[in-house]
Amino acid sequence: MPSSTLTVEQPGALALVEDLGRPGFAHLGVSSSGALDRGALALANRLVGNPAGAAALEVVMGGFRARFDAETWFAVAGAWGDLRLDGRRIAPYTAARALPGSVLELGIASRGVRYVLAVRGGLDVPPVLGSRSRDTLAGLGPAPVQAGDALPIGAQPAASVPLLDQEAAFPPPEGPVTLALLPGPRTDWFTDAAHAGLFDGGWRLSEQADRIGARLLGAPLERLVAGELPSEATVPGSVQVAGDGLPTILLADRPVTGGYPVIAVVAASSLDALAQVRPGQAVRFRHA
Amino acid sequence: MSRRLLPSGEAALLVECDSLDEVLALHDALEAARPDGVIELVPAARTLLVAVDPALIPLESAATWVRRIPAEAGSRVAGAQADPVRIPVGYDGDDLAATAELLGVPVAELVAAHSGVEWRVAFGGFAPGFGYLVSDEWPFEVPRLEAPRARVPAGSVAVAGAFGGVYPRQSPGGWRLLGRTAATLWDPASNDPAVLAPGRRVRFEQA
């Protein structure tokens, strides 16, 4: 029996259990998966005294409501919006204490995309291949959270809730988001104009952005090499250019191998920012 | 053998080889001498991805490690696995007759060829537990279906191009279905979740 549970009354658009993912299985066709905004996961966990990789909820865009059945410390990081505990406004990026029967609401995000809700003790759903993450492409890990699901909360961690953990709370930006790029394996498959175009701007995130990949809209990137590429393995952040010349940034739940050339790779340090970019928002690239 | 190291972000590099055989040989050699901090070794058709945890091993060190593997190394270090995995197959696939006709051989000959050769898992990637199988003895090059099926049943034993494979779970697919197996090939609850992991030798047996 779990010591306590979080009962989800309303999951919103999509609520998934995520931790730091399952690296080490790519050769078997399993991607790393895990929280898209890993910094938000680590921060929310630290605020409640959890290890950085404890499983938490990744809530897309909000509209989420859940009830605690026991006294529980929790913290919300990542996206920015109206957070309410029993109807009273609470601060983001701060540990708060829910009482038995308390109801937590995450309003529609006004900035960013993905809230991370960590509870003290972590979400104790059964791990698959060493991880509690939902992989939306492979269908591995806990199913997307449904209304009525009672998520088990794990045992209290050894570390206490930090008494004073002041975090400068900066909401995700509304304006252009700048991402650092490193060379990809197939940079030489593209023209000089394509390389210039990649960095000269004019990109924005399309509506086709999920945990598998984020497609960008802008001026198509021209290829130098026309041939077909035998499928090869990719890493999170790979900027793959499809036949129409538009880039897609592959993310945690991507297919392990792909047949489109990868012109560049988004630096790991920029992937958290990318996880919070909203469809339509401007994206710029700089050299890492 | 030529080997080109291509960048893939700050924590991975892609090793490009001349052929799939070289990829397989290199994969064996790297697997046999894998240092701590190398998180993924992912073989594909012409390349092999080496991904590291930079906190445990700098990418430059991993590159040096890859470069130092001698060119001739690895050719069939894989002997470690004594017996091939045996997969029982009922050869009654929807495309069996049409594929035999396409290849200009009797159905019995196609079945005999598929079950008579030793296959090896070259790489994975299409779905968890899916292995791309190759065999030097397999004589056919099989075109994919013109239009892929929306649903290929789990356990379907199929061929396409120079490859063989078994669909571990129901999915879309354009390979030609020769038969089916009841064997469990993917079990995420197991410590060894994929039967068809890269490097494994495989034999299909007529059930």
TrEMBL record, chain A:
GO MF annotation: an example: hydrolase activity
Gene3D superfamilies listed in its UniProt record: Cyclophilin-like
- Residue stretches making up the Carboxyltransferase domain: 27-288
Name the domain of life this protein comes from: Bacteria
Q: Which InterPro entries match?
A: CT_A_B (IPR003778), Cyclophilin-like_dom_sf (IPR029000), PxpC (IPR052708)
Question: Which terms are listed as keywords in the entry?
Answer: ATP-binding, Hydrolase, Nucleotide-binding
Q: What is this protein called?
A: Allophanate hydrolase
* Lineage, top ranks: Bacteria, Bacillati, Actinomycetota, Actinomycetes, Micrococcales
Automatic annotation (TrEMBL), chain B:
* Record GO terms (molecular function): ATP binding; hydrolase activity
Output the Gene3D superfamilies linked to this UniProt entry.
3.30.1360.40, Cyclophilin-like
InterPro entries the record matches:
CT_C_D, Cyclophilin-like_dom_sf, PxpB
Keyword set, alphabetical order: ATP-binding, Hydrolase, Nucleotide-binding
Protein's name according to its UniProt entry: Allophanate hydrolase
**UniProt xrefs under Pfam families:** CT_C_D
- Ranges for domain Carboxyltransferase: 3-196
User: Which chain regions cross the lipid bilayer?
Assistant: none
